[in-house]
From TrEMBL:
Transmembrane domains' residue ranges: none
GO molecular function term, any single one: hydrolase activity
Beta-Casp domain residues: 255-380
Acetylation among keywords: no
Record SMART domains: Beta-Casp, Lactamase_B
InterPro entries from the UniProt entry: Beta_Casp, MBL, Metallo-B-lactamas, RibonucZ/Hydroxyglut_hydro, RMMBL
Phylogenetic placement of the source organism: Bacteria, Pseudomonadati, Bacteroidota, Chitinophagia, Chitinophagales
Protein name as annotated: Metallo-beta-lactamase family protein
PANTHER family: CLEAVAGE AND POLYADENYLATION SPECIFICITY FACTOR FAMILY MEMBER, INTEGRATOR COMPLEX SUBUNIT 11
Keywords: Hydrolase
Organism: Chitinophaga niabensis
Length: 467
């Protein structure tokens, strides 16, 4: 049995891990899109590093595009098998992939208009809306906490990862040569004490672990100061400077967390009177899906539902649906908060909002989650004085704020707590993925001190045999 790491290897996006059994069958864990990798992004997403026609089974940990975003391309290039995930992930991933396809088609139209003017050849999207519609028919929703068979020699268990609605850690029991080995894939590990979701669950002893390490050298701030910082930015920008607060936020997870925090602030009488716009049809759909899976909520949210039938809505909140409504926000002179996807500011309507508001010092761009260093959000976080958006240069005159505590990823203490149910010497090998290499080396040393004996940080497209 072998594992090949075709994405999220010494980087944070593009999650793809391919298990090849001794009998030749291939199981793909995640099929994520690379995001925010600069000029490398397009070629990385075009070439999987393996033949999709040779994959027998696919398992998806959760809906985020860096874990699911290339599934339509996988189908387009020949994969026709089932895709197993939790029921909530099935619902979320379907709307995310359809939205991703629409964004690609729209962005390609914009780029090709410019290419035509400059005499350059037209380019094609990674996949179309029709490709995405075909791919979502392959999804199979499964419950948490129940072993199910995907092959005569392979069983799978999903446990709650606490990262976003429907997120799961994937556990495989694989029988070869009369021996059963268990492989655990963490997906993305959430935070213990998340304001909305249940905490990550314990899981059976594993022989091999493929583990994310995004914040392997970081200890997050408490969530409460993050809520307070959000209110402070609204007060300073919208009330103090009479400007606009632009918040790039992932449609799934981060947007709902912000809305939940603002709803609590409103109930407590702390929310300033200002219009708030969620400019993302996908965010509206994702919020509806979130509401439809209360089984994923923690006890605090369940108790709030007894007094508030919608913890993600409050007076002054408006959802923007049409392109014309979105464009009208750029003409608006009154102060407001605009929450829009994507979280790294690499695609979608938020890029237009940033482009139209970045040169005004009254405004603030507030980053509330992880951004790849080369992404637009990452460059703003690092203090860039100039940025290029859709090929045009913009001087950064708006303030740039960062709230690091509003992360759906656990820090090194959360990840250590996730591993606490394991006997370190019982784990034959632990692979660190989904992290920047410098961070991973720090986390590796931390885990060695915890008693894990064999830890590897694989390179992209490397393949490792399992004993």
């Amino acid at each position: 049995m072998k594992i090949a790491f075709h994405g999220a290897a010494r980087t944070v996006t593009g999650s793809k891990h391919l298990i090849t059994l001794k009998n030749g069958k291939k199981i793909l864990l995640d099929c994520g899109m690379f995001q925010g990798m600069g000029r490398e992004t397009v070629p990385l997403n075009q070439d999987f590093g393996f033949d999709p026609r040779e994959v027998d089974i696919m398992i998806l940990s959760h809906a985020h595009i860096d874990h699911s975003g290339l599934i339509p391309r996988l189908n387009k290039l020949g994969y026709t098998g089932a895709i197993y995930c939790t029921r909530a992930s099935k619902d979320l991933t379907e709307i995310l992939l359809l939205d991703s396809a629409e964004i690609q088609e729209d962005d390609i139209k914009y780029v090709n208009k410019k290419n035509k003017r400059e005499g350059k050849p037209a380019i094609e999207p990674l996949y179309t809306l029709d490709d995405a519609k075909r791919a979502v028919k392959q999804f199979r929703g499964v419950n948490y906490g129940e072993w199910f068979r995907i092959d005569p020699d392979v069983e799978v268990l999903f446990t709650d990862a606490g990262h976003i609605i429907g997120s799961a850690c994937v556990h495989l029991r694989i029988k070869e040569d009369g021996h059963v080995r268990q492989i655990t894939f963490s997906g993305d590990i959430g935070r213990y004490g998340d304001p909305i979701l249940k905490s990550p669950e314990v899981f059976p002893q594993a022989d091999y672990i493929i583990m994310e390490s995004t914040y392997g050298s970081t200890l997050h701030e408490d969530v409460a100061p993050g809520d307070e910082a959000l209110l402070r930015h609204i007060e300073e920008t919208c009330i103090g400077k009479r400007g606009k607060l632009i918040i790039p936020a992932f449609s799934v997870g981060r947007t709902q967390e912000i809305l939940y925090a603002l709803n609590r602030a409103q109930l407590a009488g702390k929310l300033p009177r200002v219009d708030l716009f969620v400019d993302s049809p996908l965010s509206l759909e994702a919020t509806q899906v979130t509401k439809s899976h209360p089984e994923c909520f923690n006890k605090t949210v369940a108790k709030m539902l007894e007094i508030d039938d919608d913890p993600f809505d409050f007076p002054g909140l408006h959802y923007i649906k049409t392109v014309d409504e979105s464009k009208a926000l750029n003409l608006r002179k009154e102060p407001c908060v605009i929450i829009s996807a994507s979280g790294m500011a690499e695609a979608g309507r938020v890029k237009h909002h940033i482009a139209n508001n970045i040169d005004d010092p009254k405004n603030t761009i507030l980053i509330v989650g992880y951004c790849e260093p080369q992404s637009l959000g990452g460059r703003l976080m690092r203090g860039a004085k100039e940025v290029h958006i859709y090929g045009d240069k913009h001087e950064v005159r708006a303030a740039v704020g960062v709230i690091r505590s509003m992360s759906a990823h656990g820090d090194y203490e959360d990840m250590s707590q996730w591993l606490a149910c394991q006997m370190p010497r019982g784990v034959k090998k632990l692979f660190l993925v989904h992290g920047e290499y410098e961070v991973q080396t720090v986390f590796k040393e931390w885990l060695l001190k915890k008693g894990f004996l064999d830890i590897e940080i694989p390179e992209r497209h490397s393949e490792v045999g399992l004993g």
